[in-house]
Amino acid sequence: MKITSIVAIYALVWVMTAFVMLPFGVKTHDEAGIPKVPGQADSAPANFRPGRHALRATIIAAVLTALYIANYTYGWVGADTINLFEELLAEPS
Questions:
Q1: Sign of the dihedral through C-alpha 15, 19, 25, 31
Q2: Residue 27, number of CB atoms within 10 A of its CB
Q3: I want to staple 10 with a disulfide (CB 3.0 to 4.6 A). Which of 3, 65, 68, 85 is the partner?
Q4: Residues 9, 14, 17, 23, Cα dihedral to 10°
Q5: What is the pTM for the complete model shown?
Q6: Contact 46, 32 (CB under 8 A)
Q7: If pLDDT is split at 50, 70 and 90, which confidence band does 82 have?
Q8: What integer pLDDT is reported at residue 65 of this predicted model?
Q9: Residue 7 clears pLDDT 80, i.e. is over it
Q10: What does the alpha-carbon distance between residue 29 and residue 34 come to, in Å, rounded to a whole number?
Q11: Which DSSP string corresponds to the chain?
């Protein structure tokens, strides 16, 4: 696998990981007991730290990308392994 493919896969996995992680560990001002700014949405986060969020997404994306590349190299799980409709497509005997 070329390095450009690895970088592209890593970037896609990083973005997906960052979006999936957004709702975890975030508290609203009501949950944290902090007064709200006038005009602020009730669902606005009180403790969002983008640097920590990006670091976590970077680590998780690196692990997931490494697993994907290892699977690509060694062929642990393939399309034939996860064929859920094998019985339906088989010829009756």
A1: positive
A2: 13
A3: 65
A4: -160
A5: 0.77
A6: yes
A7: confident
A8: 98
A9: yes
A10: 5
A11: --HHHHHHHHHHHHHHHHHHHTTTT--BHHHHT-PPPTT--TT-BSS--HHHHHHHHHHHHHHHHHHHHHHHHH-SS-TTTT-TTHHHHSPP-
